[in-house]
Design goal:
Radius of gyration: 19 Å
Helix content: 55-70%
Strand content: 5-15%
Shape: extended
Strand order of the largest sheet: 1-2-3
Largest sheet: 3 strands, mixed
Distance between the termini: 40 Å
Oligomer: single chain
Order of helices and strands: EHEEHHHH
Structural class: alpha+beta
Number of strands: 3
């Protein structure tokens, strides 16, 4: 993923082919740019996202505006750091147990299914 400053965004979007771009402003990640490869595939994905969003919003009482507000308050730097720390921890667990990631995850999936 390429990381760009907000002021350089327009130039970077024009230069980008298919690379994900992380957008920064004043040292904080404020968003991501995902270039569209195939417009028809993108259109179908957007329609599916809209269907999922509609199903989700109605029962929860959330609005798109509330969701956007929640996302705007996320500290993306802290999230990225937490993901990195989690990845390190996962590597240590897998090394100590000798399990693959799939085996480790399936242990929890089986426990959840047993509870049902």
């Amino acid at each position: 993923m390429k990381n760009v400053k907000f002021d350089d965004l327009e130039k970077q979007i024009l230069l980008s082919q298919k690379e994900l771009i992380s957008i920064e402003h004043e040292g904080k990640t404020i968003g991501y740019y995902y270039p569209i490869g195939d417009r028809e595939t993108a259109k179908k994905a957007k329609e599916e996202l809209d269907r999922i969003t509609e199903k989700t919003l109605h029962p929860t009482g959330l609005t798109e505006e509330k969701i956007a507000s929640m996302f705007s308050h996320i500290d993306h730097e802290a999230v990225n750091k937490a993901v990195e720390e989690f990845d390190i921890l996962m590597e240590q667990i897998l090394a100590q147990t000798g399990l693959t990631e799939e085996e480790y995850v399936s242990m929890f999936m089986n426990a959840v299914e047993d509870e049902k």
